[in-house]
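User: quick one
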Amino acid sequence: MIPKKIPAPVSKRLALYHRCVNTLLNSGKDTTSSKELGERLSLKATQIRKDLSYFGDFGKRGMGYDLNYLKESLERVLGINKHWNIGIVGAGNIGMALSNYQGLTREGYKVVALFDRNPSKVGNFVGTQKIPIYSLDDICEKIRELSIEIGVIAVPANHAQAVADKLVECEIKGIVNFAPVKLYLDSVALEDVDISTSFKALTFRIQGGSCGGT
Amino acid sequence: MIPKKIPAPVSKRLALYHRCVNTLLNSGKDTTSSKELGERLSLKATQIRKDLSYFGDFGKRGMGYDLNYLKESLERVLGINKHWNIGIVGAGNIGMALSNYQGLTREGYKVVALFDRNPSKVGNFVGTQKIPIYSLDDICEKIRELSIEIGVIAVPANHAQAVADKLVECEIKGIVNFAPVKLYLDSVALEDVDISTSFKALTFRIQGGSCGGT
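Assistant: Done. Structure below.
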């Protein structure tokens, strides 16, 4: 039961709230407030209350938010109360790094396959989970067979659009793009991961441009 | 001449504006408007005008923004009109991927060294730029010698805090943390890169929770 018409920036903030809620739970807390979340995330408490109100009445006035209930609700809304099968296109450094990234597994994202066009890589297995590398030629078949819902683009920039088109052809549900290039896609949810954004935010702050926390 | 007291969320949006401005310039445009930027980034035009107004009078009413001037100004504010030297701790998959990531180089971020505690990796060179891998024991010396300003943490979660403490001891200016763990630091600018945030935003949208573009 997810409400419609929630702007994209809100969804980004919900993922931040989820991360912060986990940190608070791990530190042994049971409840939090929009003020506390706001201080930790450098957001206004009013913004946080407004964002969370999209999903019903989470908090009781003056009582704060129950962290476990908030976590559950955010996970339902963010779609991480279920498991998602991921296929990574490109068994290079980024693909390998993602295959072994604990931060994905523990959130319910499971890398079940890698795809590469290099015959010397196809047939190998990656990491402790022994994830198989398949040929890019077999991608649509494997996406169906393994119920892969999310495709990750981890190929060089000049190949990224062709891979994206292929994933759309295979009827993937969503794409996460690590290639530093703008992709043109219809009808499929797309998230660009631009690593340089974090570096820019950092250097901005080193130069004295921020008053906020981390 | 960077104004003080700009909230952290604004700095994140400035990096988004910079990316979008580059895309528009590459598509052959000369000017843009807060409306156009807003549509592309799923933000309100008023928000964009407010953010940009922190840095003086960019746009003329009714005339829009000159893209080249906007790009220059954003680069000055974000600290990417200069080069930044980067040292990566951890010559594993993430470290290797970052060493070869075009999206950093072209924004003025230069990886000049990797550090690892594995003796079999020390002394090797990485990627087309032949970036040297040094011993973690020599990190403070190399940070001084090579004028490294930004340290990247690309080690497993359980080693991340120790590496962060070491970087602070070496008087690094800022840290970008790729380990999926919360770090506790005083006095040094820190940016966490949580890859799972992008996946959460994507699955939220796959489930029908967004109305925005990419």
